[in-house]
Amino acid sequence: MRHRYRRLLLLFAAALLLSACSAIRLGYGNVDSLARWWMDQYLDFTPEQDALVRERVLRFHAWHRQSQLRDYAGLLQDASKLVAARPGAADTLALSDGIIRRVRVLADKAIPDTADLLATLAPAQIDRMATRLAEKNADHAKEARLAEGEIGQRKAREKRLLERAEFWFGGFSDEQEAAIRRLIGAQPTGSQFWYEERLRRQREWLDLARRVQRERPPRATVAAWLRDYADGFDLPADPVRRGQALALRRASAELAVAVHALTTGAQREHALNKFEDLIRELTELAQEG
């Protein structure tokens, strides 16, 4: 299931950036089992599907270790250079685009296997997937405090972004934290917009899965549909909403630059040490393969 596996890979990429090194090693060594378990929660695999997913995920994991980890280490090297310098919003956006391109490589690689799995799904499994997605959406909406309007959403965003900044740079002084809160408060949260994008992607994914189940097209046709889905995953096709998405991305990049400008030399050194640990861990994991 390409959408779920892609999300897993995105979350793993976040783990590479947000976890301790020992956790990275443990998580990466078991990501194939985690992927199967996660997808099974949404689909309740038959024995035949479980065997198919096991074989394909193991193969994907081996390819990923051999071909991608050193590239990720290089990307982190680029990120560490930005921490040590005086980056602008364009630098941060370029780094973000680099992450998106690498995720797209994973998605492209997974398309043939995903097409094979989609061809095996029964209507009840797609319904189960829709139910599970709705449950996760409710959890997300609660965490983002969407029902509380802009004020609640801003508080949720403040909490999330401060936690990320403190992970990288260590603790902030009261003055720094107050300045960061002002920076966050000066921007639209974008929470409702991104939630709507989340729902759009899910609707398109479920429509695709149901179309495959209903029409039973050739594998090449399903792969083409999956490529079209991937093309529209990151940004909406509607020009107005695409403009909104790009504006929100740029605002996030500008915020990251502004927070960086508030940090001390010691805080930037804290971040550089974290990058060094991550780069070393990725390099060792690649060598183990």
Number of helices: 13
Give the integer mean of the pLDDT values.
90
Terminal-residue CA separation: 25 Å
β-strand amount = under 5%
SS-based class: mainly alpha
Instruction: Classify the helix fraction into a percent range.
Output: over 70%
Shape designation: globular
Weakly predicted, low-confidence segments:
1-22
The major beta sheet can be summarized as: none
Give the strand tally.
0
Radius of gyration: 20 Å
How are helices and strands ordered from N to C? HHHHHHHHHHHHH
What does this structure look like?
With 289 residues, the chain is mainly alpha-helical. The chain has one domain. Helix content is 85%, strand content 0%. The protein is built from 13 helices and no strands. Helix 6 packs antiparallel against helix 11 and helix 6 packs across helix 12. The longest helix is centred in the middle third of the chain and has 30 residues. The N terminus is likely disordered.
